[in-house]
Amino acid sequence: MSQFSRKQVRPNVLKICILLGLQYFATGFGNRIITFKEPMPNKVLKGYGIGRERVPNEGSCRVNCYLNPDCVSINMGPLIEGELTCELNAATSGNEYFSRLVYQKDHTYLEIEQNPCGSSPCLNGGTCQAGFTRTGFRCQCSIGSFGKQCETMSPNFTAFLSAKSCSHLKELKPGAESGTYIIDPDGYGPQLPFNVTCNMTDKNGVGVTVISHDSENRTLVDGCDPAGCYSRDIHYTEASLPQLASLTYVSSHCEQFIKYECFHSRLIFLAVYPFGWWVSRDSKNMTYWGGASPDSKECACGRNNSCVKRRRCNCDQNDAQWREDSGLLTDKSTLPVRELRFGDVDSFDDHDEKGYHTLGKFKCYGPGEEAKNFQSLSFFPKVFKLKPNDLQKQRLNNRVGVTVISHDSETRTLVDGYDSPGSYSRDIHYTGASLSQLASLTKTSSHCEQSIKYECYHSRLFKNQQEPFGWWVSRNKSNITH
């Protein structure tokens, strides 16, 4: 073995793992250790994809997940012509009370054992990667933070970061030129600053924030028939969807160009199950196209009755000619586009049905009303997906401004069939926010409260302080007996 270098040995190790389809991966590839649970047939995880490719077998897909430090689960399609689709995910299915999995025939879902990243242990926007160190995870800290869990922010880091957008930067420095800048839309809020391109000449020189992504090129859609059978996740450059949502809050206008070129392929938004759609940042299926009004179920040509044969979209003509539907999406409450879905791209009457999609860069400009209304707030909790109207409604208990976070266990729930202390358990999942994010909210608030009630019939809470029958668990996993 000594006559070979490590680089020469590694490919052989990889081949062995691919052939055997091993459940367990360890230090043969580095310092990551992960174990897969048993496969779950006819199930997939949607909305958390970080990569997709065709591979020869299940073992190859497992190895791909191991080699991607952000991967904690995989979706696998059926074996077709010697290959299967391997999709890597950055999340797992949930727990015994909550599941993100959906049914998909002939597909298989696998996830790693004990995903420590599910509790979001990395702070200040850090990325959690499972299978590393003695704790079972490591944190890749974002710019300006450090520590094992990215818990420490550099005291000088945010001193120069005052621009919330490129338009705001233009106001602060009218002579600023086009180029790459760091912006911080939520100020001292939980979202970290991120890099953007500022176009200081577009839109009459107002200062346009431009975000690139991995799906800007004209891309073929082909080879499947059911509605939405083709999917394309959009990954934005150096910015997460919560960060981009915070950009929309401080901008008066946002837009994204979208185009579908079709050959015997339909959109048909009026149908109960349209063949194509785009998915908003909040994972809602949007059944209208660029240039049309939100919820109109039409394309741009439908607004002025210029579609082929007065249909709502040109592609709905569904004939053997290349046609196109395109335009700008401008509803900033739903942008940017998270995913593209298409169908009706197989074959019909010896015609090859197909299409091409093109999605433009995400652009925002102008000062948003939210920035004006809430610019005095030192903490800007838009990461929790509170809409501006919700903030205004909650704005006020004696004009102090109350932040309200929902969760999945607010309804009255039966507790029955258990006898030993603490044998019934219920995990609480908060809407749009992790426990570490909520902990940061408590640090910037003078008062926090949460109502709790237990109705009992021949059921005790506290036999004594040493042996309670019931308790609640704090965010730091301490059992609280009061």
Automatic annotation (TrEMBL):
Membrane-crossing segments per the record: 12-30
Source taxon at top rank: Eukaryota
Record's keyword terms, sorted: Disulfide bond, EGF-like domain, Membrane, Transmembrane, Transmembrane helix
Disulfide bonding pattern of the chain: 122-139, 141-150
Protein name: Contactin-associated protein-like 2
UniProt cross-references to InterPro entries, sorted A to Z: EGF, Fibrinogen-like_C
Span of domain EGF-like: 113-151
Pfam family of the protein (one): EGF
Transmembrane recorded as keyword: yes
